[in-house]
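Handout, page 2. Input:
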Amino acid sequence: MSDFSRRQFMRTASMLGFAAFSAPLLATPAWITGKPRFISYPFTLGVASGDAMPTGFVIWTRLAPDPLDHRAVGPDPVPVAYEIAEDEAFTRVVQKGAVVAHAENAHAVHVDVVGLLPGRPYFYRFHAGDEVSLVGRARTTPAIMAPLERMKFAFCSCQNFTEGYFKAYRDMVAEDVELIVHLGDYIYEQSYGAAHRRVPVGNAVTLDDYRALHATYKLDPDLQAAHAHTSWLFTWDDHEVANDYAADQGQNFEDPIEFLRRRAAAYKAYYEHLPLRRAAAPIGADAALFGRTNYGNLLEINMLDTRQYRTDQPCQTPDDGGWQLIDGMCAERFEPTRSILGEAQEKWLMWGMGRAGAKWNVMAQGMLFSKHDYKPGDGELIGSEYWDGYVASRDRVLDMFEKRNVSNPVIIGGDVHATYVCDVKRDFDDPNSKTVASEFVATSITSGNSYWQRNMPSIPENPHIKLYEGRYRGYTLCDVTRDGWTADLRVVDDVTKPELDARTLKRFVIEDGVAGPQEA
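Output:
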């Protein structure tokens, strides 16, 4: 089942009883009139905002007096009030209301705030009983196609709690970014590498497991501060569910029905802990996460899901269904029916990307898009999990960039725990081929890279890869104007120590109308 429809899944879900994983929309019971009391402070996981638009955004919190026990609040629904203000002191409150936190959803709340003014910051907070959350700041986007001269944002991925502190977020706050784009591996379903910090779950499978991991990650103070600082956009990669999965296929060739149960649990916990719109609430093991956000006439961001709908990875061995280095001549990777996006999402991207007329058009997703031949000398070795394993999908994107004359396409990605800066070629095997787009892949927040030294000898044979660097942890900081795009590759020192020392490793620029990043 490489790419099945919502209708097909719901038919299966009905038989399997997946309804327990849905996100019910329940009315406030008439008997809720008393003031709730908690065993301790309930807003331990902080606040967050996301999915901004010109008239509003989503705000989130979760009542968690004991963060690792979602039953600590009890079985009853709890009313949660919220306020939106123009100032941090809340002297100019512009909106207030109340929602209900339900035990079925771990007492998480999502408020789709609307009716605000475009292109400005707002402040928000929550109340439950006598308790008040910390204050968060959220930003509405500018009005559609409104003139905008500058936008500053960060993108990142791959934050393994056990491997270190999330202090790169402290630097994003210091840089005062307007937006944070997270490109996947927000949690890790199990520990990989040395355990510098402990998590309460060895290998997540159940809903309780995933909830405990999300709560543990949210206790990181730098992550909480970054969520409170500004609004985010999200997509997922594999570790939110299981390493190297593809649609309903697990790395270890699990029974697809059992794997979908696990995916349903993971998707539900993901939604419960992030500021996502109600439209992204999972229905069983299905969740519509991809979407498009515009920042005036300057920037369009297309958020893609390269996990849920993909065809399984090509040329797998009988004992391993995950990422592999495979022969570049693997015939399966060239099959035209193979897709990393799935039919519906691919059509959505092809039809809509760049049509609004923004100066810069971003394709944000979790993978390396450009080709990387890892084998020096004769022959080829490619990573089966990346766009290299889905050549027809990549060619269709490149065709769209050219035929539609998309303005300044930029592809951003994560997953590989390394920084890539690439010229996106029409033909990666021909160095003289036309450069049709620019690509930046951010290194990881904490997750290690043990392959950098092994991979470095291959870089001279991939001349379109202008930089490959896997020794550092960090993120990519982007400053976008009408004349150009500046990308600072921000790196932090030893992530096993909480003290922060951040710097720009290198800076690259893209000139308006000239595809391909150049080192500044």
